[in-house]
Every structure is written in C-alpha cells, then in structure tokens.
C-alpha cells in the first residue's frame, strides 16, 4: 500500500513539471539557453580530460544531461541540447567541416528520443523502473556513437582504422555519463527535503560523505604510497552503507562524489586505472564506476521497495487489528442488543394492551399468561398458571373447535369469541391462535383483544340505528360545512327525495323561499351561540309542494367544544299550518287595496291555468313593482304611501279587462293574470296602458308625486311550469326590467335570467371585495419613441383576489358595467391615481396619468362636481397631469351630452381628455371634429396586426393622418415589437405604449422603471416623418 502510494506521489511530482509550470518561472527560449550552456560546460570539462582525435571522450557527462532532461522535462529540451552540441562541435572539437557538428547534434537528439521512448517517461523509483531505463540508455548511446563516429570518419577527423575503438569509447563514455548525471537530474524533483532538515540524517550523511571522499582520495591519488587496488574495493561497502541508510538523492550524491574524485585522480595519472593512455584509463574507470553506481542504485531501490513492503504489511496489520476490534465490538453490541431485546420483549408482554397466554400441547393448562390476560379472566397476578382455559369460554364447544384446528397445524386470526368470566360477567374478545414449538414441545400461543366496550357500543349503535330508521320524524345529519351526510326514511317520505339525492347537498335545496335571508341569519346566530334552535318554517318537497315543519337543530360537539355535526329533527305540520292559515285568512282580499290577496290569487291562478290549458290560450303572468315608491313613502309618510298604493291599484284595475286578475303581493308589488291571449302583442297593449296610467302624476296630501313601474312577464304554457315557478319567473323578469332602466316591462327569458343572476352574484362579490380593499392600480408607461422620454402612465385597475391572485379587469368589469357601483369604482380609480401622482411628486417624478372613464360614469349628473371635489383633495397636483380616456364607441350614443361634459371639465378644471380605442366605433369626421379631446389613441387591434395586414396598416396610417389634420396628439396602443415602433415612427407617430415597451406594473415599480428606461436604439436613430 505505502509503496504504491509513494510511487504514485513520485509520478505525480514528475508529471507536475509541465510546460505551464515552467513558463511561470522562465520562458522556453531561456530554458534552451540554460540547457545549451550546461551542455557546453560539461563538454568542455570532459574533452579536457582526454579525447580520441580531440573529439571522443571516454567520460561524456553531457550524455547524462541529455537523458536526465528528456526524462524529467520531455522533448521540449531537445532544441537546447541541439544548440549545445552544435556549439560544442564548432568551438571545442578539432574536426574539420560542418557536417560532423550537425551529425553529432542530430545523434544527441536521437539519443534523447530513444531513451525517453523506451523509458516511457517514468521516474526511477523502483528496481523495475531502473532496469527499464538501461535498454534506453544503451540503445540511445549506441545510436549516438554510430552516427558520431561515422560523421567523424567521413570528415577525416579520425582514422578509419580506429573507428571501432572510437565507437566503443563513445558508447562507454555516454553510458558512464548517463549513470552519473542522469539519476541526479531525473530525480531532483522527488527529493524529500524534510529528511535533509533532520540533524541526525545530516550528521550521518556528512560522516559517510567525508569517509567516501577520504577513502576515494587515498585510493585514486596514491596517498601514503599504499597499494590502490585493494583500497578501491573498500568503496563498495561505503556505497552499500549509503544505499541501505539513505534514499534516492543521497545515494546519487555519494555516487557523484566517488566518481568525481576517481576521475580527478585518474586524469592526473594516479590510482589503479592510470596504467595506460589517458583515454584507456578513463574507459576502464568508467566501467568500474558504472558497476559501483548500478550496484548502489539497485541496492537502494531494493531496500526502498523492501521498506515499502514492510510499511504495507504494518498498515495491513493495523487495518486487520482494527477490523478485529470492530468485529469484536459488533459482537459485544449484538449480545447487548439481544439481552436488551429479551428485556424489551418481556416488558412488552407484561405491559401490552393485548392479552397473551401459552397453553400446553393438549390446550388444557395455561403455561404462561401476561398481566393483561390475568385481568381479562379476573385472577390475581401469577394465579393463571395451571388453570384450564376451557372454563372461561361461554360455549365450551367453541374452544374445542379451536383446539381441533390448531392440532391440524392451522392458525386462527381474529375469531369473535364470547367469554364468561367469574365475577366479571360476559366479555367479548377477538382471539388469535398459533401452534408453536418451544424446546422441542408443541404449545399453543393465543392472544386476545378485549372488545367488550366496542361490542356494547355496537349494540347501542344498533338500537340507535333502529330509532333512526323507524321513527316518524324526519332526521337530517350534516357535517360542519352543513353538507348532508345522512337522512332517515322518514325524511324521504316527507320530502319525496331519495337518500342518494339528498346526500352531499346542503339543506338549502329544500328552501321554499318563504323565509327571508334574515330568518336564516337569526337561526344560525342562535344555533352557533346556544348549540340549539327550535322553530317552524316552510320547505319545498321534490314535487314542488310546500310543507310546514316544526324543526329542532342541535350542534354535536367533541370534548373540546368543536362542532362535528349538526342534527335536525323535524315533523310535517303542513295540515296544522293550513288549518291555522285558513282560520287566520278569513278574508281573501288585501285590507288596504281591497285587491285579492295571495290565497284568492292562488285560486284564480289555478283557475286561469286550467282555462288556458282547456282553451289553448295564452296566460300572461305579470309581476309589477313600483319605481320611486320608497322615496314617496319615506318623504311623505306611510299614510301617503298607503294612499298612493290605493290609487295605483285603482289605475291598474281600470286598465284591465273583467276576466283579468290583479293582486297585491305585499308592499309595492303587484301580480297580474291577463287571460285569454292569442299573442304577446295583446299583452303588450295592456301593459302599455297600465304603465301609461301609473306614470300620470298623483296628488297625494296636496303634493304632486310621480312613480313608474317595472314589470316582468312570463307566458303560460310557453313557460310550462307550476304557479309558484311562473310567478318566480315573472319576478326575475321584473328584476331585469329594473336593472335595464326602470319604467319598462321585460318578457321572461330563462337564459337571460340565469345570466342576470350570475352577474348579480358576481357584482355582490366585487362590491364585497371593494369593501375589503382588494382592488389596486397597475400602471403602463406611455413613451416618446424618438426622444426616449416617458410622457405618462395609464392607470389600469386590477383585483388582488386572495385566492386567484391578480385578476385582469376583463374578468370582472363586465359585471360592473351599467350598475350604480360602476360610478363608485370609477371615482375610486380617479382618487387613487391622484394620490399616486402626489406620492410620485414627493420623490421628484413629474408625469401624466390617464384614467379610463365608463360611459355611465361620464354621463352621471354629478360627474363634474365629484371630479372637482377629487381634484380639490389633491391641490398640489396640477389638473393637467390627469387625463381621462373615453372609449370612442361609448360616446356615439349621446355625442352632444358627452361633448358638453368634456368641454366643461377642460375649461373649468383643466383636465385633459383622450379618445380611446379610436377606429373601432364607426366614427366619422364629424364626431372627431365635435369632440374637444386632446389626443387620440389608436386601438391596439389595428397596431398589433398592421405589419402583416395591409388593411390594418392603412387604417393606422389613416388615423394618424386624421389626427394630424384635426391637430390632435396621437398615441399608438399595442406596440409589442421593435418593428411596430419603426413602422409607427415612419408614419409620423412618436407616442406609444404596449408590451414591447413595458407591461403594466405596480405603483412602487414605476419610479425605478422610469429611471432605468432606455428606448431601442433603432427607434432613436429612425427619421421621423
């Protein structure tokens, strides 16, 4: 393990010497210069030691430089080597010509390439890696020697007769230099500098180095005239000492010291190898030092690998010991868990709510029983052991059947069993049994869940169920949301609805409409306060018949007082009520007007329906309500109101035929039955006479008063319904007549009535949301595309719905249109916009805000007064900052009135006006000329499609030209792209708004948007027509 880690670390250190790291210190050319200089210096030293022909040295250190650098730094150093060898050949060697230097340089390059390729670029950290570099060193040296000697022979630098000797000398010199220099250079990056910082290491290495220098000097310089041959062998133990004690760097340094001293002595003619010519002496020395170096390196690497193996073994031993300790701890923990599990199991048995027992093989004797089982059979602790369990079964045969099943190797689960326990009476349990083996014996395990209380509750529930299903009073059970979850058979008998039809609905579906909303409000108030309500009311059966009921409602609460259910108990008292009503309504006529009351009207109604059905004639059912009666009644008093009702009844009666029926339903509401009609035209003639008669002035208490009528009509049998439904339809049509402007009549239309109801409900929701302050204003910028100026904002209302989020105006404004609330909402928008202008003015933002005005709002008699008051509430805001936008199509209905209002507001208040959605209202030059507006806004539908639709393009161009002709400012809506803006600018329209500029935004986002807004550069550079 440690050996692999060390090798990986060494490899990482070598590979980290990449070109990027080197460039951070010196540039590549500088590296080549350093390499070339080092090569030249080493070459000079070696050539001065002696060389064949002044060129071939038996001790060639540059070969080690070449191999060491290519192994450490790669092929990027070869240019520097090439330059160094070329300079060496030209400046130092004695051959002639230029071919030899270039051949020598090429040989060195080839030597480096061959060496690195065969060494695979791996550092020398193991015996295998060292042996791997030797073939590369040998082949590289051989190639270099062959090329160099061939070049020198061809150039005449050496005699061909000594070419073989020269080649051998060259090869030996390169090998020797490689073994001395190459390990030092290739391994300098993997030096462990921490070791060199240790005093003990430095002391030992210093001593060994001094000893090596001393002994080498004695051996190679003939010191003390001692024989040198035996002394050189003493150097090997020193090197082996270093190989065993030190690592790579220290051993290489010792080898370098030894070689240096040996070369110095031999070249001076001393030592055991100075026995021939200098060249031969150095050659012999090279062989000797190569043997020593290889031996010391191999021993060092073998020792290093041995240390790594020992480290791995120790590491594995530590890991093995750790695993053994871990397994031992796990075994101890498992034993502890087992003991704890046994304790928990026994505790669980003793405290379990389930009764547990174990019986003998024959099932006749209890061997084990937990405390819960002892309580089940009512015996004291420890007294259950040895008892025959059969004695506790209400039916002993039941237990015998259990034993029979268990002996057949079958299990039993949740068997309902009745026990008879002395002193405790009958108990019910859910019994389960298993056949088990314990210590080689068969035993029966049984566990029992006491459901005595559940059984008793079940019996009570059965009794309650009988009461629920067999009582003659109707029962309704609802959840807390008042949704029906159950009804009894008596309910179905009384109402005619099946149980499935009732479940899931609220009791509202039974309402007859006879009780006003206040009745139910009071009912729920009492119920929520006291948890109980009792009273009488009328409801409707499935067949439409009304029935009276005496009703009691109770709220069922949990232990915390939270309502869970409501229970209503009622009985049908219709007959009793009818008898009471018959006694109370001795007369069939209204006491005030002497018109038929509801009882008589109902009778006439049934007769009229029968006649219509028999004669195939139309029957007009009319519901009439007076317009303006409340004002008379409130201002002149009830006596005047009563007098007015009598006069109205007389006028209506005089307008009817003898066979028609008029009834006062209550208040200022009347019902009419117009019989024997052939068409609605005949009915219209009667209604016109009635409305004209009612509209004539009245003299009440000496004062002239005026009232009108709104009438709803439905025709039977076209509207084929029962009398109550017909009258309700006429009532709905009357409501529609009122909302359509009063003093008119309206024929019932089912779809229209439903739409009206939906719109009415939606309007109520909107008004409630207004009270809750859920409305807000968003603002959409209007900009000058040429200058980039933000000229104003258009205020757009939004509904911040608590569930639906931000709701667009198209989803709720149609429901407001035409209602009185439309004016209230419009005034709020103006006031809010003015307040926002005031707020923006406080932070230095001076812009214009435009507000859309509804037609009904603009034509309201109090519009000018209200607008003046709103502006007065914000005196610091110039009126010109407010612009009111009027939809073109809305002004066409009353152009004169609208023009007067606009002119008055502009003249007296200084408010600006704009004609919105221009081009959609079939406008003419006359309308544009007569309306005193400041600007015209082109409808977005034309602007959006003008790029692709030539007709829309022509309309937009025409509107712009028309506005110019009448000196009106023109604003384009619906600018969504840069191309839209370019087309508009080309047409001469600078002002625009739309999603291409900005979407509507909250008020607090406007200031930052205005500050950061930059128009499209294409717009700013575009020429304006």
TrEMBL record:
Membrane topology per record: Multi-pass membrane protein
Residues annotated as transmembrane: 26-47, 59-78, 130-155, 167-189, 201-220, 251-269, 275-302
Q: Which residue intervals define the domain PAC in the entry?
A: 533-585
Q: Where is the PAS domain?
A: 341-407, 466-506
Can you give the residue ranges of the EAL domain?
A: 759-1014
- The entry's keywords: Cell membrane, Membrane, Transmembrane, Transmembrane helix
Which CDD domains does this chain map to?
EAL (cd01948), GGDEF (cd01949), PAS (cd00130)
Instruction: Give the record's GO CC terms.
Output: plasma membrane
Q: Which cofactor does it need?
A: Mg(2+)
One Pfam family cited in the UniProt record for this chain: GGDEF
Molecular function (GO) terms for this protein are: catalytic activity
Whether Iron counts among this entry's keywords is no
Alphabetized SMART domains for the sequence: EAL, GGDEF, PAC, PAS
**PROSITE patterns, alphabetically?**
EAL, GGDEF, PAC, PAS
Domain (GGDEF): give its ranges: 617-750
Q: Where in the cell is it found?
A: Cell membrane
* Stated name of the protein: EAL domain-containing protein
Species of the source: Candidatus Methylospira mobilis
